[in-house]
Write a structure and sequence with these properties.
By secondary structure, the protein is an alpha+beta fold. 56% of the residues lie in helices and 22% in strands. The protein has helices at 2-82, 92-102, 114-121, 125-129, 132-154, 161-166, 176-194, 198-231, 236-244, 255-258, 340-365, and strands at 103-104, 159-160, 251-252, 260-265, 269-275, 280-292, 296-313, 316-329, 333-335, 368-374, 380-385, 388-394. A hairpin with a 3-residue loop joins strand 6 and strand 7. The chain is flat.
């Protein structure tokens, strides 16, 4: 009897322990799931906030660039207007900038609104972000951005592209020097004519107000985005890591993986790097593009050649161009026999001008730094510099691991 009672007590004790254990397990599961959900919500919140804050920062940079370009052209125009009776003494590049200020190229100004679409399309935006002031700031910036974009595109420039292109029509029997002289003479005449136009005067006189509006918007966006960073506790380091995350695809480049020939090509352009074991390299770029001269039409092939040394520092590929060459192949140009000599002279002058420009740029830059990464196969190379990204493919097979 005692044994039976003892067994019964043990059975109840085991059952009770089992029930308690199950309850604890269920409670822990719910606690862990709640913690994970909360953690995921916080991560989503911060990623969304960082993405939007960075997007507004990029819009600020876009406006700054727009303002700088407008100021450059406007200052050139003001210089031309002040020297309207001495235009022969005004440098040609200043004349070109002044006319660019007036010419409508037909292209509309656009911000990149892809991040804005993500922000508005996410069903969890309001719940995840949690801070109504932040959401209100973002909505305000995006509304201002769209309003400015529409307003800027209504600031139509007063000289049509057709009028500008008409200056390129000239006598096909002239030499290159005479063609350029004729072109800039037409430009001076057009500027004199347009500066008497009341519509043009109004457009010029409104520019300081436009620049002031852009400056005010830049100031406002900077102020609001600084508040956004404070409201969401987003640090500069987090923003930097977010930007760097775009550059961390692939794997690091090692010297043994870089050595070889790499090609990149499109319809009208071919680029090739060759990196050697002795840390020398060569680079060739061949670009074929239409050319419509007054005395010849067809396609020009422009060949740029560069050689120098290279080295790797972490994820940076650093190249030092030692020599540069440039040549033009005009064999695909159609020209009348009597104008062949004129085309040959034009090609020679064009080669000299371009080579001088490239050599000056090489001297100014000296070392060039590229961000470099490889894909998993080690046969595709990504090279980034500034906002430009290029992709190259290894010419032959795989590499030794």
């Amino acid at each position: 009897m005692e044994k039976k009672k003892l067994w019964s007590n043990r059975w109840w004790a085991t059952l009770l322990i089992s029930i308690i254990g199950t309850a604890i397990g269920v409670g822990l599961t719910f606690a862990v799931n709640n913690w994970m959900d909360k953690r995921h919500k916080q991560q989503t919140q911060r990623l969304m906030a960082i993405m939007v804050i960075h997007d507004i920062d990029e819009s600020i940079n876009t406006l700054k660039t727009l303002k700088e370009n407008m100021e450059t052209e406007y200052n050139a125009m003001m210089y031309v207007r002040e020297h309207i009776d001495q235009l022969d003494s005004v440098p040609n590049d200043t004349l070109s900038l002044a006319l660019s200020f007036l010419v409508d190229d037909g292209e509309e100004f656009r911000f990149d609104n892809s991040k804005e679409k993500i922000f508005h399309s996410s069903p969890d935006t309001w719940q995840n972000l949690g801070c109504m002031k932040f959401i209100d700031n973002v909505q305000s910036c995006y509304y201002n951005r769209q309003t400015f974009q529409d307003m800027y595109n209504h600031w139509q420039r007063p000289v049509s592209m057709e009028v500008y292109e008409a200056m390129n029509n000239g006598n096909s029997n002239l030499s290159l020097e005479e063609v350029l002289d004729q072109y800039y003479a037409k430009m001076r005449k057009l500027l004199k004519e347009k500066l008497e136009d009341e519509h043009v005067k109004f457009y010029i006189n409104c520019t300081p107000k436009k620049l002031g509006s852009i400056a005010g918007l830049i100031k406002y966006w900077i102020q609001v985005n600084n508040e956004n960073k404070f409201l969401m506790s987003i640090t500069d380091e987090e923003l930097e890591n977010y930007v760097n995350s775009f550059n961390t695809n692939g794997i690091s480049v090692k010297e043994k993986n870089l050595i070889g020939t790499w090609n990149s090509s499109s319809t009208d352009e071919v680029n090739q790097f060759e990196f050697r074991k002795d840390h020398t390299y060569s680079y060739v770029s061949v670009v074929t593009s239409p050319a419509n001269l007054n005395f010849s039409q067809g396609k020009l092939k422009k060949i740029y050649k560069e050689a120098g040394t290279w080295k790797l520092e972490k994820d940076s590929l650093i190249i030092n161009p030692g020599s540069i060459d440039f040549e033009v192949d005009a064999s695909k140009m159609t020209v009348q026999p009597e104008n062949q000599e004129m085309l040959d002279r034009w090609v020679q002058n064009y080669e000299k001008e371009c080579l001088a420009t490239y050599q000056k740029g090489n001297k100014d830059l000296y070392w060039r730094v590229w961000g470099a990464r490889l894909d998993a196969s080690r046969n595709k190379l990504e090279m980034k510099k500034g906002g430009n990204t290029s992709y190259f493919k290894r010419e032959k097979g795989g590499v030794k691991r």
